């Protein structure tokens, strides 16, 4: 298990060179570049610009792990869903061209007046299409456990069961709704078959991270946990502290 960071929120105002330099200096190993941040690595990049991005990471100790898109598929409007699928495909192309492992997408709640099963089916159909597209490009699709109602683990599990695609998995998001009687184990066991990425936030907060890390070790999780914490007035100092606390919490 390795430590990385999402550019949301601490890194959001750093350019790509600064992200790489500061993550290397503070003990991180990977990054998820979220869309609309200062790094500017977006599907609008030209072929040469994509090659330049890949070259920057290949010369560094930091892995370009993934892209954090905002593509979501719960809308009852087919045209809206189609646009979001097409946008996600552009990020898959970008991931392929720059050597990233995955693209994060999300559900973002349930629309009013639509049966939950109908929305789950619509989300799953979009994810199947993206899974097929990702398979052809060597890129995984990671569905963030996100959004009102959709972040509830049983709903995320239903989405995955309806999708049933080996290229599509979940991004555990460390939500308060994971807890059942003070423990995340029931939710973790429910979602474990599909966990391909993990977002972690405030390690000194109430969320039971030592339990999460133990459960991840028990399942022999050898991927990344990505810091998605709030902004700091001393970001480099915060990242050093965060990496040290992560190592302590992850100690067997």
Walkthrough of the structure:
- With 252 residues, the protein is of the alpha/beta class.
- 42% of the residues lie in helices and 18% in strands.
- It has helices spanning 16-26, 47-58, 78-98, 116-135, 153-163, 185-191, 209-218, 235-249; strands at 2-6, 30-34, 63-72, 102-106, 140-144, 168-172, 195-200, 224-227.
- An 8-stranded parallel barrel has the order 1-2-3-4-5-6-7-8, surrounded by 5 helices.
- The model has no long low-confidence stretch (mean pLDDT 98).
Give a quick precis of the structure.
The chain has 252 residues and is an alpha/beta fold.
Question: What structural keywords apply?
Answer:
252 residues; alpha/beta; eight-stranded parallel β-barrel
Please specify the SSE layout and strand pairing:
Blueprint (H helix, E strand, L loop, with lengths): L1 E5 L9 H11 L3 E5 L12 H12 L4 E10 L5 H21 L3 E5 L9 H20 L4 E5 L8 H11 L4 E5 L12 H7 L3 E6 L8 H10 L5 E4 L7 H15 L3
Parallel strand pairs: 1-2, 1-8, 2-3, 3-4, 4-5, 5-6, 6-7, 7-8
| Quantity of strands, as a count | 8
The profile of the biggest β sheet is: 8 strands, parallel, barrel
Low-pLDDT segments, ≥5 res: none
Q: What is the gyration radius calculated from CA atoms?
A: 18 Å
- Per DSSP, the total helix count is 8
| Overall 3D shape | globular
Distance between the termini: 12 Å
Encode the helix/strand succession as letters: EHEHEHEHEHEHEHEH
């Amino acid at each position: 298990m390795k430590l990385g960071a999402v550019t949301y929120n601490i890194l959001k105002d750093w350019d790509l060179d600064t992200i790489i330099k500061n993550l290397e200096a503070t003990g991180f190993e990977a990054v998820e570049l979220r869309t609309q941040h200062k790094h500017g690595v977006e599907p609008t990049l030209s072929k040469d610009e994509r090659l330049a991005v890949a070259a920057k990471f290949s010369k560094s100790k930091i892995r370009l792990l993934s892209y954090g898109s905002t593509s979501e598929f719960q809308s009852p409007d087919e045209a809206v869903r189609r646009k979001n699928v097409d946008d996600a495909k552009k990020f898959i192309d970008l991931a392929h061209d720059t050597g990233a492992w995955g693209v994060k997408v999300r559900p973002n709640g349930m629309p009013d007046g639509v049966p939950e099963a109908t929305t789950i089916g619509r989300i799953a159909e979009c994810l199947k299409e993206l899974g097929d597209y990702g398979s052809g490009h060597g890129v995984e699709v990671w569905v963030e456990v996100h959004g009102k109602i959709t972040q509830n683990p049983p709903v995320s599990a239903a989405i995955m069961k309806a999708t049933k695609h080996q290229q599509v998995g979940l991004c555990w998001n460390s939500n308060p709704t994971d807890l059942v009687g003070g423990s995340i184990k029931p939710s973790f066991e429910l979602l474990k078959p599909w966990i391909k990425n993990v977002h972690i936030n405030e390690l000194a907060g109430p969320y039971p991270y030592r339990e999460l890390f133990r459960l991840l070790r028990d399942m022999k999780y050898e991927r990344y946990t990505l810091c998605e914490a709030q902004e700091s007035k001393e970001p480099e100092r915060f990242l050093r502290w965060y990496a040290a606390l992560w190592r302590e919490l992850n100690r067997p």
